[in-house]
Amino acid sequence: MSRRIQQEQGFALAFALLTCVVLSITTVSVITYTSSSSRSAGLSSSRVNAHDVAEAGISAAASIINKSSNAASPTLLGCTANGTSSTTPCTDLTVSASGGTASFSGLYAAGSPSGTWTITSNGDVPNPAGGADSKSSVTATVVVVPGGMVNNLSIWNYVFSSAPQGAGCEVDISGNNVVVDVPVYVTGDLCISGQNAAIMENPLHGGQKVDVMAQGKVVISGNNAHIGASGTPITSGVAGQGCTSTIGGTGHTCTSADHWYVGTTDTLVAATPPTTDYPGYYTNASPGPNNLCDTNLTPSPNLTASGNQPHAFDNDGTMNGTNAQFNLTPASDYNCVTSSGQLSWNHTTHVLTISGTIFFDGNVTSTDTGAMYHGKATIYVNGEFVFTGNSASLHAACPDSPAPYHQCAFASTSTEWDPNKDMLLIVTDKANAISVDMSGQSTQYQGGIMCTPTSTANFAGNNVVVEGPIICGKYSWGNNTVLNPLPTIFVQNMPNGAPNWPATISPPVITSSG
Questions:
Q1: Could you tell me the pTM of the whole model?
Q2: Alpha helices in 331-382 (DSSP H)
Q3: How sure is the predictor about 114, in pLDDT bands with cuts at 50, 70 and 90?
């Protein structure tokens, strides 16, 4: 009996030991499996994070393209340039996101008219279990459709005619000896009937290369009139419906026989002018009808010599264009300051200080013969803008720092005006009529102009000189009118309230990932 108990006790001990071994193995297996599963989940999560980080790099690259003044600059995303396209080697740009780092670069392939960015982004996320980092790569494309020449993506770098094609010449450069040294875009027909009138290129003092783009016909009929010249062609141009000797003729491919001298035949790009929100700016402009000069900020709140400042912007609380004409540059001082804008004139120094978005519910004029503005602003004119009298002149002020003391020279003689630092943009609303009137003799303006597609910019005074972007329906010309070469104007540097028309940039389209 005693021996049987001893045998059973020995068996129980062996069984207990076996059970402990089995349980230990099971526990270790469970722990090992759990740890393995945890590591696997961690690795899987980090790989997902790496992909997300790589996509964040694509988004960062797209943001750089959208914010750039030139979305087709081949070096924009870290690569080197080969003409207008990109090439290797590339230097990666980096951005941090979701616990990792994205390194990205982009190659631009210039097209006609569209170009394409191919962006490669690599996401790198630390491995939570130690060891090698998790990595992922994403490739995407972004298409850029420019508003003209590939290196001139903003419509604000053109003289633009927005009148639709109708029964005749939407733009007829009819004055004798008119010289247009700027890129030109015409949605209708372009005619040059003035004697010795010409569209030429003058890059001597930083003027832009000239591109002529007409959606309709081009008719060059004036004696010795021409676009470009033999030996000195403009950079590029296109006539959508060809050249012809008369507006009623059938268009043919333009040649030197048509007095058309163009270096490269451009590809016609459909362009739409910016739209304006007059009711919105009537309400929100500052200074404006609903945001008057702040007497706490303004030592001299009287804005005109003939009345109190509330009447300068509006007279009846309704946007109807009935307010009395306001003179920006009278023979006396005024000073208007708001929390977000300024319009102040010193008749002794001839300096008009500007900032913000300004609205007048009526006509506006400028009469001073040596006026110069300092700052950046958009002035909305619910009516007509007039340079009254002969020799009225309004330029940007130079130097921009520390204090201006003379009018900036025109680009035909010097490189002084930088519209990215000082720019006055006049936006008028006078449908089916003259909207900007420079019919006085020897009037001058340096700045931007915009009016509606049914209105006219009147440059009919002899010896008129203008430098700056112009968007209007039709144009009229006097003798010896000069449109000076345009310095490059970056869209993001236009004044507050400026209607902008940048390049069309597509969202990124992912083409591969791994």
A1: 0.69
A2: none
A3: confident
